[in-house]
Known about the structure:
- The chain is mainly alpha-helical and about 300 residues long.
- The protein has 2 domains: about 10-75, 3-Layer(aba) Sandwich (Rossmann fold); about 90-310, Hypothetical protein af1432, CATH 1.10.3210.
- The protein has helices spanning about 20-25, 45-55, 65-75, 90-110, 115-130, 135-145, 145-165, 170-180, 190-195, 200-210, 210-220, 225-235, 255-270, 280-295, 300-310; strands spanning about 10, 35-40, 60.
- The chain has a 3-stranded parallel sheet with strand order 1-2-3, sandwiched between helices.
- The longest helix is centred in the first third of the chain and has 21 residues, at about 90-110.
Amino acid sequence: MIGKITYPVLVDIDLHNRHHVETLRRELPKRSRADALIFAVHSDDRAAIVQAKILGGTFLVRKPLKIDEVRFCLDSRPKAADPPANGVPVAMSATAAVLDHAMSALRTGVPLDITPVAKTAQQLVSAIAEVGIDAWLNAVRNHHEGTFQHCMLVTGVATAYGHGTALPPPEVVKLATAGLLHDIGKASITTDILDKPGRLTDVEYAIIKRHPTEGYEFLRAHSLVGKDVLAAVRDHHEFLDGSGYPAGLTRAEIAPLTRILTVCDIYAAMIEERSYKPPMPPQQAIEVLKSMARSGKVEDRIVDGLSRTIGV
């Protein structure tokens, strides 16, 4: 009998063993949000990842275990004094505030304090681990629109991908941070272009295509954002076959984090609801991404990982 647990637990067992799983399901008590339940899994073991989530895993870490990844999970778990309620409203409010702060900083040319961005990314990672991607997407659609909605959808999808594919926790936070900041360059574009219901003119499209570079240049000069996130902001519209923008990069020139963000950005844009278009069903959006993968634009492994994450 395990008894009442009031401290973090690291589980490193064979989750394919029915006896092990039944023992955990029977013995693990209901846990406070402060009591992290960490599962060690192989990143390519989909069945173990799913089983760990079903058992209530707070974090997933990859085998072979690395002490810095475990320590990151312990440092990131909610504190006992944190409110026990659903963290989605808090994370949504913080996310909207950070997006407003970041875009205002770009418009006015003032330095961007990265501390609240990093804190919000961690809140969002915890919230999605708690309630799942569907609850996050529904909440965002009900409360936000336009560029804010898109950034929040991208961030949620990217975070869920990180959880679903057992990326190391620091990488999931990087993905969330990149999702929050990836479209900051749109702060300099007028809403009549951003929200235009019809086809953009060549001039308008040229203006839109400037946003990755403008966001990157601002963050590079006015913040302490890390190089992986900077690259994702600059390159998230690049394709593996060189047909993207702004630089026409090819596969070897596009960083792994950026490749993930690109797929999540495209997916979020398709499932996004605007006044002039209904959201595309998830299955159809994944089929579009699979077609793009077959044509060499995005990485098929990432599309497959996203498909498994959202369950289509």
